[in-house]
Amino acid sequence: MPLYLIWLVSVPSLEVLAHRIVWAVPFGALIISVRSQWRDVWTAMSSIRTLAYLLLAAAMIAINWIVYIWAVQNQNVFQASLGYYINPLIFVVIGMLFFNEGLRRLQQLAVLLAAIGVTILSVSGGEIPYISFTLAISFTIYSVIRKKIDVGAMPGLFIETVVLMPLALGWLIWTGLSGQSAFLAGGLDLKLLLVAAGPITVVPLLCFAIAARKLRMATIGFMQFLAPSLQFLIGWWYGEPLVLPYLLCFVFIWAAVIAFSTDALRANRRPKPEPTLV
Question: How far is 125 from 122, CA to CA, in rounded Å?
Fold first, then answer.
């Protein structure tokens, strides 16, 4: 995704977001047809409560997407990477504060190390990582909402993009009529890249939904750190300056990742208690 957005650096962030939403709808509809999930879509849309939650989820994912697009296009890949590193740790804190879930020692250590890293960046770097916090918090809220409703990943994403589509389509029409559309002004290669926003949005989520049913939770938890690691490498490869405060911050974040992943592996290996027969 960062590479894709770097290739689209000439396209305004809002237009990229609009194309991502618009083209995700027909591609999502195709996937739902292939997987025979239209009944799940209609069931979700017929429930006012579920639809209300999905509207809020759509708002959160739209915020997440636009901030991420803007960050990558404006050479803030390290902040975007940091946001997705701390996201699993914020999940743990949210679980403790709102769902009465206790923190194990290694989880406490991971949260402490991450807090130290972010504090170093904020104090020594002279900036609070607003991008990172916005990405992490918006996606955490999105995930908590999706956890509360019984809707599959693909039907849920389809409904979210459908409710966002009028705004996105309206924006694209306005940019076209005002002569500001990069899509209309660009060549065939740019048009194909923007249309590709559909599958680039939908396919990773579909793959994750399938993987989540087949893999252990510890494996899934560890996988959450692969994307920000690749993002970090892309930022470094494209010459984004890795100043000392960022380097120190990431050292603590990586230590937190090690502690978090070790805890997840240990928890997964503990034998489950045998059921008691009464």
Answer: 6
What value does the mean pLDDT take over residues 54-70?
A: 94
Compute CA distances 62 → 16, 156, 266, 268, whole Å: 12, 14, 36, 33
Q: Which residue in the block uniquely carries the two structure tokens 């609009």?
A: 18
Contacts of 86 (CB under 8 A, 6+ apart): 114, 118, 132, 136, 253
For 219-262, what is each residue's pLDDT tens digit?
666 677 788 888 999 999 988 888 888 888 899 989 988 888 88
The phi and psi torsions of 188 (rounded to 5 degrees) equal -60, -40
Compute the distance between CA of residue 55 and CA of residue 161 in angstroms, rounded to an integer.
10
Q: How far, in Å, CA of 242 to CA of 155, rounded? A: 40
Q: Are 209 and 154 in contact (CB under 8 A)?
A: yes
What are the angstrom distances between the C-alpha of 193 and each of 109, 139, 182?
43, 25, 12
- CA angle at residue 213 from 161 to 48, to 5 degrees? 40
Comparing C-alpha atoms, which of 131, 128, 126 is closest to residue 78? 131
Distance of CA 221 to the CA centre of its chain: 14
